[in-house]
Amino acid sequence: MNKVVLITGASRGIGRDIAEKLAQKGYQVIANYNRSEEKAKELKSKYANIDIYKADVSKREEVHNMIKSILEKYKKIDVLINNAGISLTGLFTDVTDKEWNKIINNDLYSVFCTTQEVLTNMIMRKEGCIINISSIWGIVGSSCESIYSVAKAGVDGMTKSLAKELGPSGIRVNSIAPGFIDTDMNKCYSKEDVQNIINDTPLEKIGQASDISKCIKWLIEDNFTTGQIIPVNGGLIIN
Ligand code: NAP
Fold first, then answer.
1. How far is 149 from 155, CA to CA, in rounded Å?
2. 141: left (phi over 0), alpha (psi -120 to 50) or beta
3. Is the pLDDT confidence value at 64 over 80?
4. Structure pTM?
5. Which of 144, 152, 224, 237 has the greatest count of CB atoms below 10 A from its CB?
6. Which of 12, 20, 108 to mutate to test the pocket of ligand 1 (most atoms within 8 A of CB)?
7. Closest ligand 1 atom, CA of 14?
8. pLDDT tens digits for 135-193?
9. Burial, 11: exposed, middle or buried (Cβ in 10 Å; 0-12, 13-18, 19+)?
């Protein structure tokens, strides 16, 4: 059977592009969604090798049930792409406990849950590939996006630690840390804000979801890269 790839948050944006590009390459794609049911159904209708599963990945029980159902049907998950995420813009001093919990649960706890739930199967088979979508803001920090930055830095910490823990089990764990990508997540920014980002970017453009998908395809096929935080950002940050 072809490689089975689970992508969280694949109804829209980066996750959706990854799902389409991997389906076109012949992978068996499992596209997770939460709220955008119509978009997920439309995605499934376009590809025979895309299956869709609804789950709020910030909730353990929903993640557990989704992965149990996937494993009953497909027997394995070769690749887990932790992509689902939300952002929050605002002053640190204004952030409420409720907002903190929402961002941390959606962007960090979700990665803990999905990864734990797939690992038994990967460790048993002594192979697997986990790719976390973090952010440049987890690396350099972002004014007025501090909680999001905390969550993404946590994801990168998990990536590095798990790469060490799971390497001997044949499982690779990496992060892709995108820069500014043209998706719904950034619709809140004005034309002027976007132009300022472009001005600060050596390649003089913002990224497209397809730029992330290209890196994903390479990481899946690779077999000697683990524990890395791979920035795909047009040079917006250079470490
Ligand atoms: P987007 O266009 O807003 O799409 C977000 C996706 O995540 C949607 O498919 C949404 O599904 C899903 N999602 C959110 N919360 C979920 C939950 N609790 N359970 C299941 N699915 C959930 O965002 P995007 O730009 O593609 O972002 C994708 C990832 O890239 C995120 O982790 C984001 O932090 C990261 N990233 C984005 C950028 C950027 O500039 N766009 C930069 C750096 C990192 P439903 O609509 O079905 O709920």
1. 10
2. left
3. yes
4. 0.99
5. 152
6. 12
7. 26
8. 999 999 999 999 999 999 999 999 999 999 999 999 999 999 999 999 999 999 999 99
9. buried
Q: What angle do CA 236, 111, 171 make, to 5 degrees?
A: 90
Ligand 1 atom closest to residue 39's alpha carbon, by position in its atom list: 47
What lies within 8 Å, CB to CB, of 68 at 6+ separation is none
| pLDDT score, position 116 | 98
SS3 sequence, the chain?
CCCEEEECCCCCHHHHHHHHHHHHCCCEEEEEECCCHHHHHHHHHHCCCEEEEECCCCCHHHHHHHHHHHHHHHCCCCEEEECCCCCCCCCHHHCCHHHHHHHHHHHHHHHHHHHHHHHHHHHHHCCEEEEEECCHHHHHCCCCCHHHHHHHHHHHHHHHHHHHHHHHHCEEEEEEEECCECCHHHCCCCHHHHHHHHHHCCCCCCECHHHHHHHHHHHHHCCCCCCCEEEECCCCCCC
pLDDT score recorded for residue 90:
96
